[in-house]
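User: Fold this; tokens only.

Assistant: Input:
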Amino acid sequence: MSQRDPDRSGRRRHARDPKTYTRLTHPLVRDSRDEPLRRASWDEALKRTARGLTAGRDAFGMFSCARATNEMNYVAQKFARVVMGTHNVDSCNRTCHAPSVAGLSAAFGSGGGTSSYEEIEHSDVIVMWGSNARFAHPIFFQHVLKGIRAGARMYAVDPRRTSTAEWAESWLGPNVGTDIPLAHAVGREIIHAGLVNEAFVARATTGYEEYKALVEPWTLSLAEKVTGVPAAAVRDLAHAYARAERAQLCWTLGITEHHNGTDNVRALINLSLLTGHVGRYGSGLQPLRGQNNVQGGGDMGAIPNRLPGFQDVLDPAVRAKFESAWDTVIQPRHGLTLTEMFEAMDEGTLRAVYCIGENPAQSEADSEQAVRRLRSLDFLVVQDIFLTKTAELADVVLPATAGWAETEGTTTNSERRVQRVRRAVSPPGEAREDIAILCDLATRLGHDWKYADAEAVWNELRSLSPDHHGMTYARLEEHQGIQWPCPSGERLEPTYLHGRLWAEDPTRRGPRAPFGLVRHDPPVDLTDEEYPIRLTTGRRLDSYNTGVQSGGYPSPLRRGEWLELCPEDAEHYGVAVGEEVRVSSRRGSLVAPVRVDTALRPGLAFMSFHFPDEVDTNQLTIEANCPIAGTAEFKASAIRIEKVSTGGPALR
């Protein structure tokens, strides 16, 4: 079928095939920046890597991998801290759910989702806020469907009327970047309707009076004017959520990928504090993680401010414990986040990067800027299973194993469940285990590390992390996974977190949860006459992240990348389905075909980031970062479209 041939539904089909990436089977090195990568022995590749990592601890950064095992992430962060002497270690957690971790930590002292997946099957009200879980988290969504079939009422809050919203009792479609006003209006209505759980608020929270004053201006009518959501729909959501015996509030990147993502998360947490929907079975807060081990990477300390077990690097007692175990000195300061490391490349202070299983050349906002920064490094080593766009920029490429099929270990999902993964097949060619590569390199840099197997790494982690202490491999297999915290090998803790907040005894209750006093802050990239359309981004069911792994496999659902417009905008701009248009933001431009989607409203467009080799959507997105979490505003770019055929504006 040609590009101009219509498919059976009468729509024009876009026939670009995604790039198929080459599986790495042997090390590669580059003799100079002007020469291509060539095959090398492991000895040569590791010698070059050891030599390239001598720029000094403050000039080094480690990108760890949210798709690799807990054990790999543990060894990677240990390499950064012990071998290189720096806390400059981070992962794609920074790109997506760092605001969730920051918000939950600020409220409860812990960065994990508070409930189990099973609990959503027994909730009365489910709020999916900024989450097209049916496409982005299909396994989790099966639990949501079980809850709906059992009688739960679901509310979908999303600028698009997504596939998830098709299952909702009510869809609330706020304007992009107005989640805080909407949440504040819900909170104000709960207060004015007398639906506050006053006993819980008095016993378990702080800052309620300040919060009450903060949300008071956000009447239903003002919220409708700012957010675009009808006042009656806001009121209905507020009453349903507050009156429910058990309610779950779930969110994804529609909340976090904003310049004020942490504030967005705090605004949602406030609603749970107001109603007591946290710390009980069936009531909780659930940030849905998009990769198999993004939760585990942070838990293992592959972040710049926490040691394994989510222990604060600024705590002297915590540092002393790790210093004793690792025979090293740990710096009493935070390292650089992924965002800050890229900024340090621009400043010339970060000179060498060890990148494991990440593809920031295509996943970072303003991707052309990201590539330029990576090219500016003195040394870049990439350890991966495919020759990604980032690997193509490297001085050394090390072939590793696939974490889901060629490696022993564990991963941790969004409900904090640690599960075993097992090696099913042997890696191809000369590819080696990630941990073996790291230990070999550590030895060359003066640290003789030897682990008999992944279980030995896990046992070292267990000895240092109270939350994981009771999780032996044998128990993980016996229970088919265990949620943290699990401090004891004799019992299992409740599936939900923060039950302490309901304790009668204040000494057992622990620290109170503070309301987050956050204010509305519109998107940074404003729409105007030159850039009149709001572009938001997200995932599609058939593809995965930058397409490196999923692009090589056929899918009957896959059409490539499109610029999706509502029917009214397609008609207004005079563009037909399948017609290619130039899409431009204040940072870059690209060409993409048009697709019409009735889930969108006038002035709102949608694209994914799954096909960057054909349509690099992140050329358009803005690096406007959350000051607390460092996550960029992928969800709110301003764009214009032009007809390619005429070279002029796409206007009638």
